[in-house]
Amino acid sequence: MAARGGAVLGSNKICQFKLVLLGDTAVGKSSVVLRFVKGQFQEFQEATIGAAFLTQTVCLDDTTIKFEIWDTAGQERYHSLAPMYYRGAQAAIVVFDITSTDSLTRAKNWVKELQKQANPNIVIALAGNKADLANKRTVEFQEAQDYADENSLLFMETSAKTALNVNEIFMAIAKKLPKSEPQGGAGFAGRNRTGVDLNEPTSQSRMGQCCGRGN
User: Fold this and answer.
1) At 94, which helix (H) or strand (E)?
2) CATH of the domain at 152
3) Amino acid 181: pLDDT
4) Segment (H or E) for 71
5) Strand order in the sheet with 63-72
6) Structural domain containing residue 21
7) In a domain, 202, yes or no
8) Which of the pair, 47 or 205, is modelled with greater confidence?
9) Is pLDDT at 12 greater than 90 in this prediction?
10) Does 171 fall in a domain?
11) Quick one: pLDDT at residue 19?
12) pLDDT beyond 90 at 23
């Protein structure tokens, strides 16, 4: 693991955060995570069953941040499982599809649920995905921005296909998370540092250069 850690991990503080993705089915949650963790996009992404677990490490100033990411299924029949994944999470990305007003309604319901039941200090970001389909949008940027402002959410329009704002939304979350104390410390430095997709157990993250990668 020397190539991934090197001197940086030796001198940096290491913080570990649980992050959950929520949203309606087919809004692109798994595609956003795949783009962030592996730098890949698949036009036809299979629906997540239950949830998938992945990790990715980024560097912010003098801190190495490890995201432990739970990508939850959007189908209604899995809704009852969601609290198991967002319980104890320090961050959440609620994803909607800018071409679907129904998906924004669903996203708002997720935000309400998080505000009532999740960690009171959770950092919530709203992602308007599929920005590459702007010519088909039914949700205006300002509408979503106003809602985000009213609820103290981070908001960006993203595109897993073109990579627009995918890294940026994770980095914006990283900047808002408390980093006064290491989350897990050195004991976690060597554990599961490559991204793992439970749907593809043999796959590993190729984005291992940490601070050397562009945001």
Assistant:
1) strand 91-97
2) 3.40.50.300
3) 53
4) strand 63-72
5) 51-60, 63-72, 13-23, 91-97, 123-129, 154-157
6) 13-176
7) no
8) 47
9) no
10) yes
11) 98
12) yes
